[in-house]
Design goal:
This protein has about 575 residues and is an alpha/beta fold. It is built from 20 helices and 13 strands. The strands form 4 sheets. The protein has a 5-stranded parallel sheet, with helices on both faces. Strands 2-1-5-4 form a 4-stranded parallel sheet. α16 links the parallel β9 and β10. α13 crosses α17 and α17 crosses α18. It is globular.
């Protein structure tokens, strides 16, 4: 009635009068008993209800915090625990490589808010530095310690040896650039300079790899970056003092060891004594033999009597430990590796890698030479016809060779063609050496991995565009054994595990080689004790020093009578 007063044409004064009358009448009908009940309700029940509401809120909040905390601890355990039991059928479990599990979207949000272990890798990182350093030769351990002390000093008080890859120069791929590291470290040691690695083609190395905590910090800094003249060849980088290693310094008939000891090191010490920034590089494009000779020279100071022979695209056995004291993947790349290895169910040391460079411009590839060279750097592998048959034949042999090394383990197939990888994962049903069906896994990609040494430097590219290549390398570095072919990319994976378990499934011309074969066998040659005595006598033991001195005297006597 009050709400509809306008409907009944009651004026406001009449409305107010009626309101007062009705209100008084209603209050008059309320007896004392009702007033007493209402008072008691207001005095007791309402506070109790408020108290219960507060208790309920506190309890539910506490339960929520407890569940969140327990969930965090559970994920922390998942991310840190080292699992050894094999997964059950259909079960997705964390692995020892990435310490991560399949996490729901909501849980993943929680994990990301309180920790960064999604980027933790058991095979690379600060936790590997001391272990790897302890296995390296004494001269290299001392250099790493000296290098760290120098990096703490003002830049103006240090001298630097810079290993470059600048746009406008042919540097080779990732493997060709990093394979000479033992030699570059030796040269830095002998010239008493701080080793720096500086790339700008296609991006700086620190966009993909960074030094782990406690390792050797090889990164560049603004004083070097500002000196780089973008697009100019090394010989025209006139803000640096340039030295060539190998043939360009001494001629191609002079062995690199003799050239380094007798020419390169003295020249850097004398001619560049006042130069703070020195660049060192091999001449030519991908000088495989010079790299091998340089790494063999580094091994001369790392073994007492015998050392491994390095051939073709081989790596020094100490390369894996050198890599681990210098590099770990950037967080975004490490997270990508975690995600991939979790999805594939791979754990460090519990799988075999089989690598195929389908695009490598081998003479046996059924394409004209100019097309082979373009295919290697620019991609575009057409997976059909004779090229398809060529790739499948090589890939099957690569997988079989890898399986022979460890028949009980799954095989991770890695290739520079995503078409080949997809075919091997979905179409091939191969039998293992133990008679069981071979478990073959591969990374499912929609595009080819990019080659980092394209001539135009990949203008407009992002560092993440090249992650797939680094992902393949580092995953191979977590395997127990490696089956690789030609080119140094697959050999890189073997180098990361110290060449401890490997086989080579292709000849230099690209043709397949059945396994088992001798191509990956370890071959030893004698070291030259005179070399250590002449260059680093401080690292000789007393007995070795005496023997070396005796040999030196015998050689002097022999030379004396020879002159007579």
């Amino acid at each position: 009635f009050f709400l509809e007063r306008t409907h009944y044409n009651i004026d406001y004064s009449t409305y107010r009068a009626l309101h007062i009358i009705i209100h008084v009448e209603m209050n008059g009908r309320t007896n004392g008993k009702q007033k007493s009940i209402r008072a008691k309700l207001r005095a007791y029940v309402v506070p109790i209800l408020l108290f219960l509401a507060l208790c309920f809120t506190a309890i539910t909040t506490g339960i929520g915090l407890f569940i969140t905390t327990e969930r965090q601890h559970a994920h922390q355990a998942v991310l840190k625990e080292f699992y050894t039991a094999p997964p059950e059928n259909g079960q997705r479990v964390p692995n020892i490589t990435n310490n991560n599990a399949t996490i729901s979207k909501n849980d993943a949000t929680i994990v990301r808010t309180f920790r960064t272990d999604e980027t933790y890798l058991t095979m690379f990182g600060a936790h590997k530095v001391q272990e790897s350093l302890s296995r390296l030769p004494k001269w290299l351990q001392d250099y790493v310690e000296w290098h760290a002390e120098q990096r703490k000093k003002p830049i103006s008080e240090c001298k630097f040896l810079i290993v470059p890859c600048f746009y406008g120069n042919k540097c080779g791929g990732t493997s060709d650039r990093l394979r000479p590291l033992p030699y570059w470290l030796l040269l830095s040691k002998l010239t008493e300079r701080v080793l720096i690695i500086k790339w700008d083609k296609p991006h700086d190395l620190h966009e993909f790899l960074v030094p782990p905590a406690g390792g050797l910090d090889w990164r560049s800094f603004p004083e070097i970056d500002e000196r780089v003249m973008y697009g100019r060849r090394l010989r025209h980088q006139n803000k640096f003092k340039l030295f060539w290693a190998g043939g360009a310094a001494c001629g191609h008939k002079v062995a690199l060891a003799n050239c380094t000891i007798n020419v390169t090191v003295p020249r850097i010490r004398d001619e560049a004594n006042e130069e703070q920034f020195v660049i060192i590089s091999f001449s030519g494009n991908q000088p495989h033999q010079s790299i091998n000779e340089g790494n063999m020279l580094a091994q001369q100071f790392s073994y007492e009597k015998e050392m491994p022979l390095i051939k073709q695209w081989g790596y020094a056995e100490m390369f894996g430990d050198i890599f681990r004291i210098m590099f770990e993947p950037v967080p975004a790349l490490a997270h990508q590796i975690n995600k991939t290895m979790t999805s594939l169910g791979l754990r460090e040391g519990e799988y075999v890698s089989a690598h195929v460079r389908a695009r490598y411009p081998a003479p046996d590839m059924p394409l004209p030479r100019d097309e082979r060279d373009k295919l290697d750097k620019y991609g575009g592998f057409v997976f059909e016809g004779i090229l398809k048959n060529y790739a499948i034949k090589i890939s099957r042999n690569a997988v079989r060779c890898g399986n022979i090394l460890a028949p009980e383990l799954p095989v991770l197939f890695v290739s520079d063609s995503h078409h080949v990888s997809r075919h091997m994962a979905s179409r091939e049903k191969l039998k293992s050496q133990n008679g069981m069906e071979l478990k073959l896994v591969t990374v499912n990609r929609s595009e080819e991995p990019l080659h980092i040494d394209r001539n135009d430097g990949w203008p407009g590219s992002k560092p993440s565009d090249f992650f797939s290549g680094f992902e393949d390398l580092l995953m191979m570095g977590g395997s127990k054994c490696v089956s690789h072919g030609i080119g140094s990319f697959g050999s890189f994976g073997s180098g990361l595990i110290g060449n401890k378990c490997r086989t080579i499934h292709r000849k230099y011309n690209g043709r397949s080689v059945s396994c088992p074969n001798y191509r990956g066998d370890r071959e030893l040659i004698s070291t030259d004790p005179m070399l250590m005595n002449d260059v680093m006598p401080e690292y000789l033991s007393l007995s070795e020093s005496s023997i070396s001195s005796l040999l030196a005297r015998i050689q002097q006597v022999y030379q004396f009578f020879g002159m007579l």
